[in-house]
Every structure is written in C-alpha cells, then in structure tokens.
Amino acid sequence: MATVHRSSGFIALPARALWDVLVDLERLPRWQPFVTQAPLRDPVGLGARLDWVPDLRGAWVHRRFAAPAVVTEFAPERALALTQDEPAGTTVLRWTLRPAEGGTVVEQSVRSDGASGPLFDRMVARRFAADADTSLARLSMLAGPPRAADPLHVVIAGGTGALGRRVAADLVRRGHAVTILTRSIRADLPYPQVTWDGRTVGAWAAVLDGPNTAVINLAGKLVDCRPTAANIAALTASRVDATRALVEAARGKDVRRWVQASTTAIWSDAGERWCTEDTPLPEPGLPQMTGVARPWEEAARDAGAAHRTILRTSIVLDTDSPAMAKMVGVTKAFLGGSLGDGRQWFSWIHRDDWLAVVRAGLGIEPGVDLPDGVVVAAAPNPVRNADLMRALRRHLHRPPAPPTPAPLLALGAIGMRSDPALGLTGRHATSTVLPAAGFAFAHPTLDGALDDLLG
C-alpha cells in the first residue's frame, strides 16, 4: 500500500519564477534541507538523472549504491516529478504549480510504494515531507522573494513551535517580513532570529522599532503535563511573563497589530454550554485551564497596539502538531476508542483556517474586517469525542476500538506524565465574530478537514 505525504502553500510569485528554481535541481539542497547534494548527470528535462544524497546517517551507502533519481514528469510551469527506485519499491517526489489570485499554489507530495514502502517512508519520505511549509518559504526566498503591496514586519514570540513555524512561513511566502523571538537560535529556520529570555525587556526590544510592525504572541510552555501546582505555575509564568515583557517593550512604539494567543480551554469543562466570544468565564474554573488562560489574556490588556486580537484557539488539526500526532498515533495503534463516555465536546480548527484567522487579525486577509477583541478560532461544527475518534478510525482505516474508561485514562496519564482532563473535558466553542466579519472557513467539517490532512 502506498503512503503519500502532501502539503501545499500559497506563494505570492508567478509560476514562472518558482519553476525556474524548481528545475534548477542542483539548487534543491538550498531550499530542501533533507537533501545535502543533488548533482545532475544530464541536462534537466524528462529522463534526466539526479544523484541526490539525503541527510541520513549512513548516507554514504545511498551515495555508493542507490540508483539515480529520474525526472519522470516535466511540464513547464505546471509539474515536476522525480522517481527514485528503491529495493522492492519506489519513492516519488512531485511538485505542482497552480496559478491563484496574486500568486501560485505549490503542492508537494512524497509517495512511497512497493514492498519496501513502509521502510522508505520512515527513512526518507517523512523526513523529506517534514516542515514542508518552511521548505516552501525557502523556495519563495530563492525565487523572489515575494513582496506584499503594504508589507508588515511581524515579530513572532514562540515562533519555533509547530504553529509559529507555520505562520512564519505563511507570512514570508505572502511577502511580509518576520523576526522570531526565541530563547535559542534555530539553524533550521531561514528567518531573522533574536534571542530573549521571555521575561525581561532587553536589547531584543529594538525589533519592535520601525514602521508597519505587528506582534504575534504564541509564547508558552506546552500544556501536556501533569496538573501539579508546580507545572501549573510554570505554564502560567511562561505565558504571563513573556506577554508582560512584550507589552512593556512595545510601550511608546508604533505597533500596528497585536495578535495574542489564548485558548478555548479558558472555559474549562463547559459541558453542554455552548461558548462564543460573549460567553462569561467560569468561576473559578480548572486551575490548569481557566487558571492559566485568564491571567494570560489579562497580561495583554495594556498592549499598546492600534489593533489587538485575543485569539482563543481550539485544537488545531495539523499533522505537525503534538496534539494531532498523539491522536493519530493511538488510532493507528488500534487504541482509537472514545475517552470516558465520549460525550465531551471537541472544538477544532484546520491549520489553514487558523492561519487565515491570524492573517485577519493582522489585517491582511482580503474580504475580512475583524474587530478588535476576543475571537474564537474554531470551526463552526464541533463534534463529540466519540465522533472524533470514529472519524479518525475511518480515515486511518482502523476497526472499531473499545472506549477507554475515565479511571483507566487517569491511571495511564500518570505514567505518561500527562493531564487526563485534556481528554475527558471539552467545550462546544464557535465564533459569532468571524462570520460577521466576512470570514469563510475552507474546512468547516471534521471529515473534510481530516480528508485534506490524512487523505
């Protein structure tokens, strides 16, 4: 059975500019970091051979014994494919270019087939497909770079996480400049990075100088941990301290837009209460949910920006996110039954829709006029946990699985150093602000979102 990894992204450049870089195959290592060398044996065209070398331990074996990859599709400004014969299988790398308003949609797919397909999927395909958004951003920088009509300089705190990397790549491909605030420089990111400690104002604050500056604040410790007093304090501090430092650094500066991360978990376990932007917060709420998110939002209250959006984000469905990776992993392991009674609500949003909501908060999403204040970043069709797990099993071709009783989940969470409340609580959260502002979801239903992400 073939395994295919697909990803796509909009780039604000014409297809010809992108094609010129794509077909210059010896430049492949400059925008695809999994490839270390790519010498051509023949002039580029149908049938041309390429001795590409992957960034793998033991790559010398590939260099010494692997057959060359062959160009098996060559349609100028439309499609390019490379086929690598493997022992008892093949790996196919394919890119397509589709004109879109203001630029081009680039799709990349990596397909492993044959008896050795599962092995080469793990060794090659997954590595090649990893962080494809950033690879496409590198491609855009080589081909252009793109430049928006009124470009923003967006400072992203928390820009090295899964969502931060997504939004940074998306903005660069659309012609905006980004700077990442990070505790340590990441060599695998092609954007300017400035170090900070996430607590105090320092020399890093200079990144907020200059015109057309915007802030996206995603900084914060991952929430999947035991709900101990020490962990809750660390979750809160990592968010509140970083936000306060950003607010102080921006004081007196001309910041145009501020997109502040928050979470729909601010409503804790909402039961059958349906939550929108105007729904009051619970008192006191769960300490690891409301107790963390409320002070996080309050810390951004004095953010000195012309426009400010508080983005209460639901679970983002993204193949690179820890949350979805865990759900897919347990389902593939034939453990994809419902959690507890399975009636808890699951609010979610496809990664592409989340990116579009962020762009709306930055004032750069065409046709969307988002007001300041709280915005719920969640698709219009939440589902029950039982329906979520049923959909995952269907898309991953797994049979029905027994539910996991709440006491068993709580016991397992101890060994996994996790919080059982993440799976046993839920909330029906949707937005009234987004549709009123003219926002249309590309993926309004769970089945459609999973079909796009999982095939």
UniProtKB/TrEMBL annotation:
Residues 154-280 form the NAD-dependent epimerase/dehydratase domain. This is DUF1731 domain-containing protein. It holds the Pfam family Epimerase. Residues 405-453 form the DUF1731 domain. It comes from Tsukamurella pulmonis.
